[in-house]
Design a protein that fits this description.
It is a single chain. The chain starts with a helix and ends with a strand. About 15% of the residues lie in helices and about 40% in strands. It contains 6 helices and 23 strands. The N terminus is likely disordered. It is mostly beta strands.
Length: about 525
Amino acid sequence: MIRNTLYPILLCGLVGLAVNNVIAADDTALLDALVRKGVLTSKEAQDIETEAVKETAGVTAGKIQVGDWIEELKLGGDLRIRNQWDEHTPMVLTNPALKNQDTDIPRDRWRFRLRLNLDYKLAGNFFGGVQLTTSDNRNGDTGNATYTGGYDNYNIYISRAFMGWRPDPAVTLIAGKQANPFYTTDLFWGPDANPSGLVERIDFHKFINMTFGEPVAADGKEGKTPAPPPQTAPGNALEVSLVAGQFIFFNNNLDAANTQLTWDAYQFETQLLTKLKLGKDLTVTVAPALFITNDASVGSNAVFANGNLNPGSVPSVSGTAAQNNAQPFPITQRNEFIVLAPGDITYNLFGKPLSLYWDFAYNALGNDRFTKDYGPLFSSYRFLTPTATTPTFSHPWQPSISDSLAWLVGLRYGQNKKAGDFLASVDYRQIGIAATDPNINTDDFALSNMNSQGFEFKFAYNLTDFLTISVTGYISDALTKNLYGGYATGNVPGVTTQFPIARDRHDKVIQADLAMKF
């Protein structure tokens, strides 16, 4: 009688547990105990477990299932709402005699950026990830989408899709469209640039123990430490990593008649990332690198009789443009052999990091890029008649060291990780017209213009662990005050073939952001 009463009660109870826990180990132990006590036979216990599994299968049908080779899945993302006001003064203005000068051109835009991330780890030390993001017209250097009108819907793009393998803890191999693998500032690489290609990373400090010096005490102070437990790890460490990237920049027509049009455009960067950690509070980072490109077209699909690429053959901007990033140079990638040297000194001050940071870029082929790709450039212009709309340029300008050189130095205090955190920073920079690559630079400072110098200011505050407000300002002027003509300065009245990478005499940008991560 007791057995007949307990059997259905236990069956219902264990089925309920199985629905939530798929027969946990505790349930199996309970059945075993009941068998030993003589309450259930072995067959009855087996029948209960089988029935519970059947019930569970019915309840869990349709739930998310993943392969047993998937060890970890991580979902996340962020949403940022931005108001951006900017104003620029063009280098070349219209004929003053026409009395229709527009010296300062303002603009105000509401924008947003949505990013959705999926990262995964697989068996055998394989891994990968996918990122979806908004963007204006597939723009490669920003995920911002500008609110337009009529309650429009907005496109979403694949901004990352990569796979990787870590055959050894010190060796990482990645293929696909991925996050920028290099230590950098926004002097050279735009923060939203996700290069496509191959990356190899070797962490030498994981092969060889590079720690040294006296142990750091358990309480973070040197000297005697109360026991237990003693802290035996060395207080100093050297980390050295080699990071190499081979990136596909532009796919050209293999059947073209000219080799510059046939060859695909590639970008290569190799960096030696070195970090010296002195105790718990001081870190010095130096990351020299070399960035080079091959000689290929990145948009032009015809050549002149002398063999030079024809800028007039670049597809129009409306939908079929060779590139849609801010103020690109869609002609060629040649004459870029750039030495890079970013770094920082960071000290933990009052529990927050204080960083003196810098960046440096020098194009050893800058003179050739100035004269052969961007030029000819001039130092003055005039209109021949009071009614003329096309200027005449004069006084050819010869490149100097400043045209091939870019540098930045700044100070930053704080970080944004949890509620109440803040970050404040300021930096000054100069960017020669031939010093960096206009196709991968940031579109924030100087509105992506080369030939510029000025300041960036930023303040950000965490309202919660996941919600941050920030204000960023950029003020810049032309580095060479009078630089006209060529294919680079843009907005030349009456001249149609222009690519405005050095368009402005003065730029101002203010961005107010509200960002939420999830």
